Amino acid sequence: MGGPNGSQFSPRHQPVLVAGTLPEISDIGAFPSMNALEILRETARILRSDPSTFMAILLLLICPVSAALLSNFLIDQRIVAFLGRGLMFLAVTSGLPAAHFVKQICHHLAGTVVSSAVCLPLLITLLLLARACIAYSVACNYAGKKVVASEFMVVVHKIWRNMALTYIWVCAAIMGCLAVFITLLVSVCNSLSVLGYPPEIIVYPALLTVLGFSIAYAHTIIVSNLAGVISALEDASGPRAFLRSVRLIKGQTQAGLLIFLGSTIGLAFVEGLFEHRVKTLSYGDGSSRIWEGPLLVLMYSFVVLVDSMMSAVFYFTCRSSGMKGLSGNGLSMEELELLSSESADVH
């Protein structure tokens, strides 16, 4: 099945209302559910239809955040080293071997936590604003409307407030997932150590625990990303956005996981290149950093842009599928949308 085209979104095809913060976008038609590849193709179509808007978002809002995250110029490496040693001590005392890969995992986890904490002001301002702009632009594309900056600025305050509250809940969910993982990992390793198993054996159950955490983390991220789009396009935020996200994502989890996997691999690849080519290597006087650094920041920003656009497209296909699942009772799409909104208010 190919990706949808512009004709499928005309008002003649079961109009669906985008409620809450974007009342002017009211003629977005229903369309078939899509897999991850079709969502990527649809994202490319939207990007080609209005490249100037999305490139402006990339350069003005996403690139500064990407530069800060990749370069780590805001981060005190002593704090990262201290936290990494603490995690390594916890791992060794739990029974894990003092292997190089365990040390690398602890250092990477410490760097990620410190980087997220230090860059929080950028993440909660520029990045959230970028995601709000992307969701708004995708919705305008589906409604057949031109993106008007002045109209967006009228509702940006409420959009950002909703997204900021939802982002706080996202951070809490991720930190809770991480806390459960560390507690479970330490408990498993300590239990096996008390039973007399050597560190070389304990590492295998630990890897299974890491695999379980990775699956739980992936599901948390896709629900969180969808909740972020909901908080931008609907009058919902925080727990309501999460509950709405969980309801919408039913039956679409596989596509969400593939989107998460693709974006994670892309971001990790560019981050690895930046670490190796810019932070570690240089040619002669270090002139390679002059062009490789900005190029990799641009690549990283583009992956973030595409991921955010795919999340917005994923929201619309999940929403359309949810409405189709309820349409068998004879209600119109507008009535179903009102029923869904009332259900969200109850929760």
UniProtKB/TrEMBL annotation:
The chain crosses the membrane at residues 54-75, 82-102, 122-143, 164-186, 206-233, 254-274, 294-316. Keywords: Membrane, Transmembrane, Transmembrane helix. This is Uncharacterized protein. It comes from Platanthera zijinensis.
